[in-house]
Write a structure and sequence with these properties.
Elements (H helix, E strand, L loop, with lengths): L3 E5 L6 H8 L5 E7 L1 E7 L3 H7 L3 E7 L6 E9 L1 H10 L4 E7 L5 E7 H29 L8 H16 L9 E4 L21 E6 L2 E2 L2 E2 L2 E6 L4 H23 L5 H15 L2 E2 L5 E3 L5 H4 L28 E9 L4 E8 L4
Helix pairs in contact: 4-5, 6-7
């Protein structure tokens, strides 16, 4: 795993805390966190108080004055070190990526309100890059008849690398066409050449600046009116589902699923998978495997979608539409952020 930069302005700079938490003293370099000021927070964890020697710790809070800055130290940590730092910090702190005076970006522990602002902005910015990526995909005609699904996936991956330096994706990259568009996410159908009268979709999860974008679009080739109708219905029903979500502050996963299912049925489509969306940035699809219904927009989720998770972070959602016509043997796909503009 790659190393991580962590900016510390408080007790993690103390040698005794480093030895207690990382098993060694850390080498660091001075830097400053821009646009922040310091406040004080009371901590209650006895082990943290014992290691630091204090029950009051400094807290970085976003400042209204852009000239404000907090001096501190940048450390290079392993993945295990970063997990140990997370365990050390009180629940009042959350970790975000922020700009330093040196021009580098580093993890830093800040107050929860600031962290949520950063997180929401990061998710929106990641989606904006995904939108730009797929606009370029369409402009270059990368998803086109005559190319294999794996080849198209690799071409989009390479374009993402060229445009944004993206090297990571938070789930497998999917290009599917023809009858493969009926297959659910977990299936791995044989590679297929996109045909002249096909329908195809792309399901990508690029990571931009540590924030996950989950984004999907559908492409239709030829003149089949039903395939073009599906291409039109996907964004229309997405917008209708988002409007239903916006209108009900207490809506549950079950309720939103039912509304999407109704809208799809009225248009003549069937939902092709067992859910219509999921939390973004909280888990990889491969690990969760539906074990936690509250993480998905599904008939089994009776919890409100507007809530915080187990560590106090605001839940943000992807609305994921996979509609199919099993009789005619094709489907389509559309997904992006549900609750953030």
């Amino acid at each position: 795993m790659p190393d991580h930069l962590l900016f510390s302005y408080g007790t993690l700079r103390l040698p005794r805390v480093q030895v207690a938490r990382f098993g060694r003293e850390l080498a660091g370099r001075p830097d400053a966190l821009l646009g922040f000021r310091l406040e004080t927070v009371a901590v209650t964890d006895p082990s943290v108080i014992s290691d630091s020697g204090s029950a009051e710790h400094p807290m970085a809070v976003r400042s209204d004055d852009p000239h404000d800055a907090i001096d501190g130290t940048v450390f290079t940590l392993t993945e295990a070190d970063l997990a140990a730092a997370d365990a050390y910090e009180d629940d009042a702190y959350l970790r975000v990526k922020a700009d330093l005076r040196s021009g580098e970006k580093a993890w830093v522990y800040v107050d929860a309100a600031t962290a949520e602002d950063f997180r929401a902005a990061g998710l929106v910015a990641a989606q904006e890059k995904a939108i730009a990526l797929f606009a370029e995909v369409e402009a270059r005609g990368l998803v086109a008849p005559g190319f294999g699904e794996r080849e198209v996936s690799d071409r989009i991956r390479d374009l993402a690398n060229d445009m944004f330096g993206t090297t990571k994706h938070w789930h497998k990259r999917i290009i599917r066409s023809g009858p493969n568009t009926l297959r659910p996410y977990r299936d791995n159908p044989p590679d297929r050449i996109i045909g002249e009268d096909d329908i195809a979709f792309a399901d990508f999860g690029p990571i931009f600046e540590e924030y996950e974008a989950d984004f999907g679009r559908t492409y239709v080739f030829g003149d089949d009116p039903d395939k073009h109708r599906l291409l039109h219905d996907l964004p229309r029903i997405f917008d209708a589902g988002r409007a239903v979500f916006a209108a009900d502050p207490d809506i549950t996963g079950r309720q939103l699923y039912a509304e999407v299912e109704r809208l799809a049925g009225e248009a003549g489509w069937e939902i092709g998978i067992w859910h219509t969306g999921h939390l973004v940035g909280e888990f990889p699809h491969e690990v969760n495997d539906g074990a936690k219904a509250e993480s998905y927009i599904t008939p089994d989720n009776d919890t409100p979608l507007r809530r915080t998770d187990r560590v106090g972070k605001t839940c943000h959602w992807i609305l994921e539409l996979h509609f199919v016509d099993r009789a005619r043997g094709f489907g389509g796909f559309y997904e992006q952020l549900l609750d953030l503009a």
